[in-house]
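Ligand-bound model needed. guanine.
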Amino acid sequence: MSAEIINGKELAQQLKDNMKNEVTELRDKGITPHLTVVLIGDNPASKSYVKGKKKASAETGISSDIIELPDSTSEEKLLQLISELNNDPEVDGILVQLPLPEHIAEQKVIEYIDPGKDVDGFHPVNIGRMMTGKDTFLPCTPFGIVTMLKSKNIAISGQHVVVIGRSNIVGKPVGQLLLNENATVTYCHSKTKGLKQFTKMADILIVAVGIPGAIGADHIKPGAAIIDVGINRLADGSLTGDVDFEEAKEVASYITPVPKGVGPMTITMLLQNTIKAAKGRKA
Ligand code: GUN
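Prediction:
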């Protein structure tokens, strides 16, 4: 068997094409959705992600700006900036690129952002709303994963989802979103004993561990859907996921590639959240 590939790049393009119409409708009403990205320091990966966010925004007609500040920026100065953005009626979405320098308390910054502008879906108010199944800004990578599964009509209700990884950004929320869709969810992580016995039970296996090739054919139940969240840069500069793609695709029914898998979907969901924020703009 050779698995069907879920092409995140193509799906992201389709979604962005639809978003263009939504943005045009908002612009006709005098609302131009606007995303402000705050980037502190010069982490090369962060710079590259932020550039991707700006480019994708422009493709859909969303306006955006990047506020770049030096590594030495104080926490107080960053909180002051967030306060100004919270009060700016023209700013719909605020994204502070993580990680932050060590002298700035990440959680404090996240909690300072107006939950109505938290297009990352990281604010505890939005996390709480997600936990209770209420309409809210969903964290972008988990939202993208659920959208990919639904795009292929992959059954979720009653299925066994195994998530490897328990980060606040991906692992924990993706399990929660799929639980909301009536999946049975198992979380595995670096302290899990006997990982394979769990992964082999998965109808849907979500891998977010950050180790190239951590999951091979012998971890996978025949016919499972495999979602690879890993983005690992190899010595030759190429990108690879956490799953051994060539092996896994012979066992799985569906699989996401890296690149062109989950990555493009994450940015697209950020745009979707920005449009949602603009729709809720207070007059
Ligand atoms: N750093 C890596 N991924 C993300 C993300 O989704 N949002 C923010 N704000 N920072 C990140």
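Residues 95-98, 120, 140, 169 surround guanine (CB under 6 Å).
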